[in-house]
Amino acid sequence: MKKSILIPIILLVSITFTGAKLFISDKSKSSLIESHLSLPERQKISDRYYSDKKLGAFYENGKTFFRLFTPNAEKVSLIIFDKVGDENGKIYEMTRDENAVWETSIEGKSFGKYYNFIVKHKNQNPVLCLDPYAKAVASFNTYFSPRKGIIIEENNYDWGKDEWIRNDWRDLIIYEMHVRDMTEHPSSGVEERGTYKGLVEKGKTGGLSYIKKLGVNAVELLPSQEFANIEIPFKKELRGKLNTWNPYERNHWGYMTAAFFAPESYYSENTRNIKWNAWSGADAKAVTDFKDMVKAFHQEGIAVIMDVVYNHLSEYEFGNLKEIDKEYYFRLNEQGDFIAESGCGNDLRTEAPMLRRLIVESVLYWMKEYHIDGFRFDLGKLIDWETIETIIYEAKKVNPDVVFVCEPWGGGYDPAGFSLRGWDAWNDQIRNGIKGENPFNGLGWIFGQWYGNNNPQRIKSYVNGTLVNDTLGLFQKPHHSVNYLESHDGYTFGDFIRLGTKSVARDEIIKDVDSFVKLTPLQMKLNKLGALFLFTSRGITMIHSGQEFARTKVIPANIDVPDPHKGMIDHNSYEKDNETNYINYRHAEINRDLFEYYKGLIELRKKYYSFRRAKYEDVKFHEVKTNPFAICYEVNYKDEHFFVAMNANPEISQQFSLPKGDWEVLVDQSKAGIKPIKVVKNKIEVEPTSGIVLKRK
User: Fold this and answer.
1) Same domain, 567 and 590
2) Please, are residues 97 and 81 in contact by the beta-carbon 8 Å criterion?
3) Cα 682 to the chain's mean position, in Å?
4) What CATH number is associated with residue 649?
């Protein structure tokens, strides 16, 4: 029997922070798994529960339904709030079916209402929990981030003629970027700075206008599912946790997902800083803003790929899957504590059947509801193989061209395993081989050095897509390799080069960032050589935002934060919502020569199939006997015939003999593009730390 009760609810924050008791009469006993069993035995039993019922909150046949899966809860209730800040709500008892799905329904539509589930476990106080299937979320911006789901109407957006951008994976040129960073700096010229709307404002210096000018055909958004913006207090213990590493108390990049079906609400608010102790996202505007953004990118022929985090959950907040059913949804040790191979506090048990279902349904939801063209999976090796295989199988039913990229480490390292399953993977081998692993004692090929086990043969392997055809290769097909030199992690490529050339010390204070960002002649040559290798290699090409002008990440010296590294180059800016991360378009002008070089390489790669479609046997390397840091090769693909030569030796020029005929120079140490710079024959000399691309006339 279901009944609704109107009772006062203790302030949400109080319930979250103090664990205050919320008493509800228990009239329906649940079937609990025997507590005397071992954890593996209990998890094995809970995995037998499975349901195909639609979960979350949704309107159907004149009613609004609410469903939550949890096999271990003793009792679950629904609470509905009329306003986001209400402390009182209407409570509805929920009943559990034989498959551990708790359910209730309300007559009529409840769009715009706010809701939580009240979850009670044996010998524990009840907790207000966010629906893991919530399609929109309101968040209270404070420690532990209390949240409420918002009941919204789905499938009511006018997409017009919009559909997925169906790129051949081989043709992808990906621009990894952060929604807020692309327009938050005043130099972007954007009115709605830092937002989905601002990102696609037309005719501005920054955002979509800039990305279109650069010429890439795909953007990869750093996490944009609702995530934890705030971490715990700095050097003050709260609920047994102590933050000793993050004086900013922020999570800027977004790798702490809170809701797998809802867009990040902060990116719909045109505010310079997050509003503490206040609600954000209460208007659910992010749902429409996100769709408008995708539609605008699609109108320019640019695909939208989302960086998604399904290996762990937001670590510090209270009232999510950890409180809904810790034993079912998380990997735990024998003592019942969270396992954290991710380094993020709590690894999800993706092998649990109903969590696997949630992940798959989340992916499909973003494809169908938001027209998302592809996904990049954070720490993909922490996701079990059956889930990985199910994701791509189900997604390709919806869109056969959907893009799947993963970070092939986390719970091990296996890019080859992802390739065998038809996934792309970040190729850290080309990254480390070409630029190096670190700029202090691990420099790579562009510096005229060998990092680790790299050698001339491995460099040639990278040109071909790091294939299993070579004994050192990883991938079944070239387009399974996502080639990159810079990502959100680590130093920017520009800063790596500044440090690697000892132009600046690691702990040096940078007083004038505008002067510092301007590249020296050597720094420019190194940036261009790395870019040339990247764009002429087979595989998917990815650059990080700002790489095209040698972006620097200097922590502002004048911020009011107890950061001992203020004024220095940063290599891990995940927590800094400030100019460390923002794209400064003045710097793009300062290094405009490099921007134009990248733009030209993008034009070259997009126009000529040789750099995207050539097969292993289409590439013929020429031997360079006296210079191990020089490579040259011919590419013959259909009616295209190219000669590519690069000299990473920092001290000597290298002369290359050319095949017979006249050769148009499309790329040299100064320029890149599709218009001939000059015509040469017989031989050509390549300066130290530079390269060329020639096309048979």
Assistant:
1) yes
2) no
3) 47
4) 2.60.40.1180
Model confidence pLDDT, tens digit, residues 558-571: 999 999 999 999 99
- Residue 34's SS3 state is coil
> What single DSSP character describes residue 263?
B
Contact 64, 108 (CB under 8 A): yes
Which ranges of the chain have pLDDT less than 70? 1-31
What the block records as the tokens of 555 is 């922590």
Give the C-alpha separation, 466 to 537, whole Å. 10
Looking at the fold, whether 265 and 192 belong to one and the same domain comes out as yes
* Domain total of the chain: 3
- Determine, yes or no, domain membership for 163: no
> Are 268 and 195 contacting, i.e. CB atoms less than 8 angstroms apart?
yes
Select from 276, 275, 178 the least CA-distant residue to 219: 178
Q: What is the pLDDT of residues 90-147, one digit of tens each?
A: 999 999 999 999 999 999 999 999 999 999 999 999 999 999 999 999 999 999 999 9
Phi-psi label, residue 580: left if phi above 0, alpha if psi -120 to 50, beta otherwise: alpha
Q: Is residue 158 part of a domain?
A: no
Q: How far apart are CA 488 and CA 684, in angstroms?
A: 38
**What's at 84, amino acid-wise?**
V
Q: What residue numbers bound the domain in which 34 lies?
A: 4-150
Q: Which of 561, 583, 607 is the last residue of a domain?
A: 607
Q: Which residues pair with 475 in a beta bridge?
A: 467
**Any idea what the CATH number is for the domain that residue 83 is in?**
2.60.40.10
Please report whether residue 452 resides in a domain: yes
Q: 554: buried, middle or exposed (CB in 10 Å: 19+, 13-18, 0-12)?
A: buried
Q: Which two tokens stand for residue 30?
A: 């649940």
